[in-house]
Specification:
six-stranded mixed β-sheet; four-stranded antiparallel β-sheet; ABC transporter transmembrane region fold; alpha/beta; disordered N terminus; single chain; about 65% helix; 20 helices; Rossmann fold
């Protein structure tokens, strides 16, 4: 079993805004909407900056000049201004939300499209829960920063710059007093922002651990419960969630301190402005309206600085999430289509040839296959037999190019499978695994999975041939019956027959049967074997044999031992001439005879049967 890779532990870039640069090509198609949103943000900010000036006119008109008419006019003007601002804010909010939804949806689609093209071995080495977390929560963080963070950043920067200019023009002396708040605010933002970045990265990794652990437990829940390990698995999950919670609390403390420092320095400066401005009003050097306008501008500045400090923390989180997603997107496909694919011959005869095939899963691991030379003639049925670990399943996986050979070549009608487009190659090969998995949905949807254009009549014909039609129509909703996730509502035998029907409907030229009838009872096995024998006529078939009784009528049986072919022939020939095959055959049938006895020990039968598993 592959070891689970550790959490990435990658800290976000020290310049977290750089992830926006990596997103730039994805934002380019929406330049028009972004430009319009920018114009609306500018307009909304201008209205917000005009508000203190209007307040100044109202106050001076009401309390200094005593002009009631002017007061009414300014109030109506202010009301109209707010109506315009509401419309502008609506337009900007819709545009940025629309762009963020589209960009992140495309990002999720591209990531899924990239991952689903990786070979099975990639997922055996990866944590599926972690990959799902990147699709969901990490992409959600990016969406949040695009939808709310970036527009708010632009708005607050405009407020900050505009308000600073206006307070400087309004009263330079009061402006200088307020600047005492800037150095401690900047220092607090820099120091605490670094801590928020580190904590955010740790939280994302621990959350990914928790999701990956839950995914693993849910998919192996039968094993967990059979060993009564629910409590232990819960403790491990609780530990990961607690670590995520504790990290979140520490991050909350850091953010709260940052917010507190910023608020104190910003509004402490307001106190100085009120004190000094009040003296100036009493001396007649400043009107009350101007002082209030100045205070409103400073509150806008304080709010902008506080928002920017919070945005910095959010940007750190989004940077870490983007880094995790782009790391996956920028990984090379382990098995990719050739640059100039060679088409398979039409019609495809179905000759399979393995020439000096060698394979190992990693350079530092021993070879699983070592010098395999094997030819399957068109329409021939060849069974692979051998002890566990002999390389049967690995050899079969090379035909569909789920792995690439480490040496030698696999040829299909004389064409190296590495030169064929994966879609064309795998379309020519049908696989029925020993433990087929169905998708959540209806029986009909699962049958149609390999051939979406199949008609209902064709689906029913395939089901009849696989001896699945009778049990399907016995369901309350027939072919529209939902099978549940992984097909849990069906028995093992029913799942197997649906999987066989699915391959029957696909009608491939090459068949790989991983003991396709092993999960069936005796009667169902007989019916399915009949269907498979009809299916195999005229098709090249490779059978991975676990039960030797099912392949005695194969055209040829190939015996594997430690990655090498040690025998080839018919059942009768091998039984007489190949010591390994004869031993495996005798042990299995002795086990079956013993297991049929009422006094048999189940353990003995299982031990003997495992010899050829």
């Amino acid at each position: 079993m592959p070891s689970t890779p550790p959490a990435t532990g990658i800290l976000p870039d020290r310049r977290p805004y750089r992830f926006l640069i990596r997103l730039r090509p994805r934002l380019a198609p929406h330049n028009g909407a972004l430009l319009l949103a920018g114009v609306l943000i500018l307009g909304g900010t201008a209205i917000g900056l005009a508000f203190p000036l209007v307040i100044r006119e109202i106050l001076d008109a009401a309390f200094v000049a005593g002009n009631r008419t002017m007061l009414n006019q300014v109030a109506l003007f202010l009301l109209g201004l707010f109506v315009v601002q509401a419309v502008v804010n609506f337009g900007q909010s819709y545009l940025t939300a629309s762009v963020s939804e589209r960009v992140v949806a495309q990002l999720r689609q591209d990531l899924f499209r990239h991952l689903v093209r990786q070979p099975p071995g990639y997922f055996a080495r990866s944590r599926v829960g972690d990959l799902a977390s990147r699709l969901a929560s990490d992409a959600g963080l990016i969406q949040g920063i695009l939808r709310f963070g970036v527009p708010e950043l632009a708005r607050q920067l405009l407020f900050l710059v505009g308000a600073l200019v206006l307070i400087t023009v309004t009263h330079p002396r009061l402006t200088l007093i307020t600047f005492v708040a800037i150095p401690p605010t900047v220092l607090a933002g820099w120091l605490l922002g670094r801590r928020v970045r580190r904590l955010s990265s740790t939280i994302q990794d621990r959350l990914a651990d928790a999701v990956a652990r839950a995914e693993q437990v849910f998919t192996q829940v039968t094993t967990v419960q059979s060993f009564t390990r629910e409590g232990w698995e819960t403790e491990r999950f609780v530990a990961d969630v607690d670590a995520t919670r504790d990290g979140g609390l520490r991050r909350a403390v850091a953010r709260a301190i940052l917010t507190g420092v910023v608020s104190f320095t910003a509004f402490g400066a307001v106190v100085l402005v009120v004190w000094e401005g009040g003296r100036l009003v009493l001396e007649g050097a400043l009107t009350p309206g101007t002082l209030v306008a100045f205070l409103v501008y400073w509150i806008l500045i304080a709010g902008a600085v506080t928002s920017l400090a919070g945005f910095w923390g959010n940007l750190q989180e989004a940077s870490g999430a983007a880094r995790r997603i782009f790391d996956l997107l920028e990984e090379n496909l382990e098995l990719a289509d050739p640059e100039d694919p060679e088409p398979l011959p039409v019609p495809l005869r179905g000759e399979v040839r393995l020439e000096d095939v060698r394979f190992q899963y990693a350079p530092d691991l021993p070879r699983v296959l070592d010098g395999i030379d094997l030819t399957l003639a068109p329409g021939e049925t060849v069974a692979l037999v051998g002890s566990s670990g002999a390389g049967k399943s690995t050899l079969a996986s090379l035909l569909s190019r789920f792995h690439d050979v480490s040496g030698g070549q696999v040829l299909l009608d004389g064409v190296d499978v590495r030169r064929v487009a994966l879609r064309e190659l795998r379309g020519a090969v049908g696989l029925v695994p020993q433990e087929p998995m169905l998708f959540e949905g209806t029986v009909r949807e699962n049958l149609r999975y390999g051939r979406p254009e199949a008609t209902d009549a064709e689906i029913e014909t395939a089901a009849r041939e696989a001896r699945a039609h009778d049990f399907i129509v016995s369901f309350p909703r027939g072919y529209e019956e939902r099978v549940g996730e992984r097909g849990v509502t069906l028995s093992a035998g029913q799942r197997q027959r649906v999987a066989i029907a699915r391959v029957l409907l696909k009608a491939p030229r090459i068949l790989i049967l991983d003991e396709a009838s092993s999960a069936l009872d005796a009667e169902s096995e007989r019916l399915v074997q009949d269907a498979l024998e009809r299916l195999m006529v005229g098709r090249t078939t490779l059978v991975i044999a676990h039960r030797l009784s099912t392949i005695v009528r194969a055209d040829r049986i190939v015996v594997l031992d430690r990655g090498r072919i040690v025998g080839s022939g018919t059942h009768a020939q091998l039984l007489a001439e190949n010591e390994l095959y004869a031993r495996l055959y005798r042990r299995q049938f002795e086990a079956e005879d013993v297991s049929a006895s009422p006094s048999a020990e189940v353990g003995s039968a299982e031990e003997a049967t495992s010899v050829v598993d």
